[in-house]
Amino acid sequence: ARKYVVKRHFQGEPKKDDYELIEYELPPLKDGDILVKAEWISVDPYLRAYNSQIKTPYDQFSSQVGIVLESKSPNFPVGCRIVSQKGWCDYSIVNPKDKLNVELGVYKLPNLGDLSPSLGVGAVGMPGATAYFGFLEICKPKAGETVVVTGAAGAVGSLVGQIAKIKGCRVVGFAGSDEKVKWLETELGFDKAINYKTANVVQALKEAAPKGVDCYFDNVGGEISSQILAQMNLHGRVSVCGSISSYNDSNLPKATIVQPSLVFKQLKVEGFIVSRWLDRWPEAFADIIQWIKSGKLKTREHVTEGFDKLFDAFVGMLAGENFGKAVVKV
Ligand code: NDP
Hints:
Keywords: Acetylation, Cytoplasm, Fatty acid metabolism, Hydroxylation, Lipid metabolism, NADP, Oxidoreductase, Phosphoprotein, Prostaglandin metabolism. Helices cover 25% and strands 25% of the residues. By secondary structure, it is α/β, with parallel strands linked by helices. It folds into two domains: 2-122 and 301-329, Quinone Oxidoreductase, Chain A, domain 1 (Alpha-Beta Complex); 126-274, Rossmann fold (3-Layer(aba) Sandwich). The strands form three sheets. Strands 3, 5, 6, 7, 8, 15 and 16 form a seven-stranded mixed sheet that branches. Strands 11-10-9-12-13-14 form a six-stranded parallel sheet, with helices on both faces. A three-stranded antiparallel sheet has the order 2-1-4, with no helix packed on it. β12, α6 (222-229) and β13 form a beta-alpha-beta unit. The two termini are 13 Å apart. NADPH dihydro-nicotinamide-adenine-dinucleotide phosphate binds at residues 44-46, 49, 127, 130, 151, 153-157, 175-177, 180, 219-220, 241-242, 244-245, 272-274, 317-318, 320, 322, 326.
C-alpha cells in the first residue's frame, strides 16, 4: 500500500517535500477488520489548519470513499462502500462499527442511488453536514432574510447559499473570480455574487443587501468578515465556520476591530466544529440527497485524477482552483 506522511510542519503554503510518499506492507486482517481500496480522496482546508497542532510525522488524514475488498466484518461485506478518515492512502485496513463512529469515523456510504459515490466526501459527507447544520442550527434563517456567505463557490459555501435559497432567503455570495461569480448567479441561483478580489466589498455589499445582513456564514475570516459584520442588522446571527484567509499565515493575524458591531447590533456569533452533530449527520444527508434528486440543489466537483496528484489537488484548492468540492479520483 502507499500513503502520504507529513514529515514536518508547513511554513506558509504547504510544499511538496513536506510530504513523503511511503510504500509499506499491510498486515493480515483481524476479526472485525475490512480491507478498503480508496476510490475518492478528499482534500480540505482543515488539513492545512490543523497541521501546526499535530506532532510530526503523521499520516495525512482526510475523508475518503472506498470499496471493501476483503472483510472479516459481517456488516461490511466485500463490495460495499464506506467512508473513512484514512485519508491519503490507496489501501487501508479499518475496523468499523455499523453506525457513525466518532472515534474511527468509519461508516457505510449512504445509499446514493444513481449519484456518484464521490458525494460521500462532499455534499453527502462532511462538507454537506457542515453547510446544513452550521447554517441551519446557528443562523436559524427565516424566509425573506438576507444571508451572506463567503467562500461561496467552494464545497461548503456553494451548499450554504443553495440551502438558504431553499429556505426562502435572499443570498449574497463572495468568491474569488468572475467565473465563480457567474456560476453562482446563473447556475446556483444566488441573488448576487461578488468577486472579493476586485470589488469594493463595502460598497458592493451595500448595493447587494440594501436591507442589511441578517445571517452571515463565514468561511474565510479576516478583514472581509469585519466588513460584513459592520453591515449586519439588529439581532443578526453569524456562523463562524472557517478562516481560510489566515491558514497559510505563520505570523499572528493583525487584530481587526469588530466589537462595536457585535455590541450595537446585538449579534450572536458562534463558531462550530461539524462533529458536534455527528450523530445527526444522517438527517442532513437525507435532506441533501432528496434536494439533489429533486433538482433543488446542484453539486459540482473539481476532480483531479490520480493518487500521485493529491498534493497538487490540495494546494490547488487552497489557491482557489476549485468550483465546488475538490476531490481526487484514485
Ligand atoms: P472550499 O471548497 O471552499 O475551498 C477553499 C476555497 O477557499 C478556495 O476555493 C478559495 O476560493 C477560498 N480561499 C482561499 N484562500 C482564500 C482567502 N485568502 N480569502 C478568501 N477565500 C479564500 O473549502 P471547504 O468548502 O471545504 O471549506 C470552506 C471553509 O469551511 C474553510 O474555512 C474550512 O476550514 C471550513 N470548514 C469548517 C468546518 C467546521 O467544522 N467548522 C468543516 C468543513 C470546512 P476563492 O476562489 O473564492 O478564493
